[in-house]
């Protein structure tokens, strides 16, 4: 059985329930900025319930990446998602990018999130790095703690088996063009985004990529943020996108955890090692060239 | 009687008559920049009269948020808006963001604006923070001075009753996607904006959000700036939007003050407290996780 | 006779022939950046001849704002434009924004440009400030040297008579939305612009504004830069715009100089003084409010 | 025989195979940023094979500009492109902009790349500067090493013969509007790009420019990056663009090397010298004007 199960493209609907975390990670003083905080709380408080209803209506499964801090702040949130039949996965503790942390800090943040989910009885089997900013240490950390997949890299648009020491992870690649952030996010403080795109443009962008991925048999790993895509017109566009995909007849919807299992069991996908760290010495050019 | 009066969506047309204030708040030396000053004065001097005529023609009410400084600089402006049947509301004194002020400064600025409106005989019953940058102190300030509503937060897209100590405010939420600033604003000095969007795109964006809000029964709280939306093609697009909404047959237009009264009297909307200030300690992650 | 001569809208096609000047004004070291310099030289060397041919074909007049430095660097350029029946006007000497100069520097730069045009036998009767960054001193400088109009302010979208001491200038207002820079300009070094818009979008934007201006009887004062709008597809879009305007039947094309004469002779346009410099003291708010 | 061979427009499809180089050139520490590195490695590893297949299917030739560092890191890459019938050309060693290097550094970087291609048996006859940031020294460097053409300048949209001392180069001009970077590139770290455009918009932009260039008989010198345009929907749009051009019937496709030969042999294109370095002294304005 191949990872795609014969489908032209596989869709994983994923929602990064970041709430206030990315803003606070960029500056703890934003806790005082009531307007900005309210902009972020809309995600879990208004967006998530609507998204869950939409997924119910369309009968498609999804994966919710939740920072541990967010799960801690809203104790019932993660389990309420699981109770609706969806997957909750690891999205760091405090939504600080690993590339901005020392290795010891990354480990501590990673484990702190695991502790939160364990305390809440929520089983997590996959991980996505905050800001999609995985370091070279991240895959080993994910593997060491027994998770099955990571979803933070962009080396392909089809899943692959990432060899990490003795074990393997399924890598479910992401891409900025399938992220609602670049299309919709705007805040003046902290300064995020420029113009705000219309849902019609975003629908067109994503439909085109889905069609392209059906041509090349790829993973359409969509990433939406409830504080962004939970807004009314954007939800209607997301509904149209899902209905379009369902109507194609050759697209399979799956949770990331289930896809990871299929990927790790697909013999046509041989394990790939991490690429070696690129060596780039801008000063050596003169000496070497002569 | 519910806040929406049975309508699928409620529309509040609001105009932030900022004139030169936001530019001067970012640097008093811009007073010398005659081109930039003229770009801003277009708002009250050309945009507002055209907007008032458009509202007359279409027979829809609106709310104009006016900084006290602007009302002071153009003595007849606020009353001329009231005389046309619209509401004038509090939009700070000098259009400095509260989040950039010490609490004492925010209070002084807030009260100075109230003094201007009182001196002009203009009754204000609602408030919108400059830059939509309310602090955690802002709601109490609004309630303390007897205003009925605030319109600076984004925790929902339906109005809610905000509990503030012993009293309540109606919160009429805003959102960046219903603001003309991100679509149209451009100045090189101070540097504001990037590309300038076409009115056709903006009309499409806002119509889609109105349709989404009719689906979810929300408040379409549109925010336009006369120095931006007062330009000819943008006014024609705004006219088309209003005509579309009127043609829907299930949309109600109201001034913010009247909506606030309905919100405060709607028993189906229980008071919500301010959310607690988020505690986010990025340093504690290592210690807590072990 | 009114300034608009009974037309629904008046069109002034203007071309700011900036060449290398704005880039060098932002840093003289860019003279070494051959790629960037070549990007700018395209304007006078390729763009201007094509634009002149297009104007011939469509038989419409135009005004070319030329920095003195550019006229000096390419000695035949200004006169070759005049010889084709168009107007050449003053656009500073070195394309440095007046707001970045001390008053004495602004005067020196202004007069140096006049000297260049005088030496070349090119009569100039109007002025546009570099970067549309006029200071409060600029109008007096324009009037003192006997020019008839300025085209750097944005207080209206219809021409007006600007009272300057004992004399008057015609002000022919500009606006960022009728400038090709925000739509097309991109350079990484110096960093200018973000995405590059398609000519179809720009054509739609400008057609909509022309229609809006026909509704409100305004001045459609279009500003194009030959290094931007001289590119093939953009020229075709500009041609379509002009053909559309010609087809309207109620639009009048004129050179700025001729419009200025009509404006100054229109008794329905009473002289407006410069607005007083706004007084904005952000520190006084606390003391005054109490 | 003229350079265009009687075609209305000539198309050179070019692909800048930058991989990790531009990111590492902006900061060697990005080697640790696994997500960003994976975003860049997608180019040679996934994008290039798909592009080669697409070119095969449509039977059109192309030119691949490859930094020497990239060729070194992936030893078989350059030759595999040549083996498919396409051209590989010089695109610096480390993708550092020449304008950011001292002349000695530029030379060393330039020669180091030549050494890599020589060692791999890949003959290169043309050059494109990293970041399209050629200095005034770059053309002499290209000529001195016996290359036939450069493709880094923007002084025209038709090829020209660039006189360099005793010899000549063919200059095949580029332009930002025919570059996929401004349309598609987005990374948060290093910060690149803002919104991500849809392939439908880009197709429309490029088709319009091709039509404009057919009108003016120009060189449509398209620049795509495999890490950007190798994505599924973008490849489909590129396919549509090529099919459109093929369907025009008056468009000729060629490799840059072959075009350069035709340009250098076209007597209707007289050699143009490098323009003199512009002299721009912002301080002299006051003294000279009096």
Mind telling me the CATH superfamily name of chain A? Glycoside hydrolase/deacetylase
Q: What Rg of chain A is obtained from the alpha carbons, in whole angstroms?
A: 19 Å
CATH-derived topology of chain A: TIM Barrel
CATH architecture of chain A: Alpha-Beta Barrel
Indicate the overall shape of chain A: globular
| Major protein interface | A-B, 50 and 51 residues
Largest sheet of chain A: 5 strands, parallel
Order of helical and strand elements of chain A: EHHEHHEHEHEEEHEEHEHHEHEH
The first-level CATH class name of chain A: Alpha Beta
Overall mean pLDDT of chain A: 96
Counting structural domains of chain A, the number is 1
What quaternary form is this? homotetramer
- The tally of strands of chain A reads 12
Briefly note the structural class of the backbone of chain A.
alpha/beta
Ends of chain A: how far apart?
Answer: 54 Å
Continuous helix count of chain A:
12
Summarize the model shown.
Four copies of one chain form a homotetramer. Chain A is of the alpha/beta class. Chain A has twelve helices and twelve strands.
Write the layout of secondary structure elements.
4 copies of one chain form a homotetramer.
Chain A: E1 9-16, H1 21-26, H2 34-58, E2 63-66, H3 68-73, H4 77-83, E3 87-90, H5 103-119, E4 126-127, H6 138-144, E5 149-150, E6 160-164, E7 167-171, H7 181-184, E8 187-188, E9 191-192, H8 199-216, E10 219-224, H9 226-229, H10 232-248, E11 251-253, H11 256-264, E12 272-273, H12 284-288
Parallel strand pairs in A: 1-2, 1-10, 1-11, 2-3, 4-5, 5-7, 6-12
Antiparallel strand pairs in A: 6-7, 8-9
């Amino acid at each position: 059985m191949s990872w795609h199960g014969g489908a032209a493209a596989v869709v994983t609907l994923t929602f990064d329930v970041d709430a206030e975390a990315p803003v606070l990670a960029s500056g703890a003083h934003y806790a005082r900025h009531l307007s900005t905080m309210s902009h972020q709380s809309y995600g879990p408080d208004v967006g998530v319930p609507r998204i869950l209803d939409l997924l119910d209506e369309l009968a498609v499964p999804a994966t919710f990446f939740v920072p541990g801090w967010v799960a801690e702040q809203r104790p019932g949130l993660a389990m309420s998602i699981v109770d609706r039949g969806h997957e909750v996965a690891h999205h760091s503790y405090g939504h600080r990018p690993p590339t901005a942390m020392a290795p010891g800090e990354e480990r501590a943040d990673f484990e702190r999130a695991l502790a939160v989910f364990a305390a809440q009885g929520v089983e997590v089997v996959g991980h996505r790095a905050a800001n999609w900013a995985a370091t070279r240490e991240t895959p080993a950390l994910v593997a060491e703690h027994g998770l099955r997949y990571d979803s933070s890299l962009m080396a392909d648009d089809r899943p692959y088996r990432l060899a990490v020491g003795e074990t393997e992870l399924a890598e479910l690649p992401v891409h900025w063009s399938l992220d609602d952030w670049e299309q919709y996010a705007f805040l003046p403080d902290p300064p995020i985004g420029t113009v705000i795109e219309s849902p019609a443009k975003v629908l067109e962008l994503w439909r085109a990529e889905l069609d392209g991925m059906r041509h090349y048999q790829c993973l359409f790993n969509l990433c939406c943020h409830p504080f962004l895509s939970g807004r009314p017109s954007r939800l209607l566009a997301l509904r149209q996108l899902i209905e379009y995909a369902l109507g194609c007849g050759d697209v399979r919807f799956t949770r990331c955890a289930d896809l990871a299992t299929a990927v790790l069991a697909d013999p046509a996908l041989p394990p790939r090692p991490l690429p070696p760290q690129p060596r780039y010495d801008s000063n050596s050019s003169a000496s070497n060239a002569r």
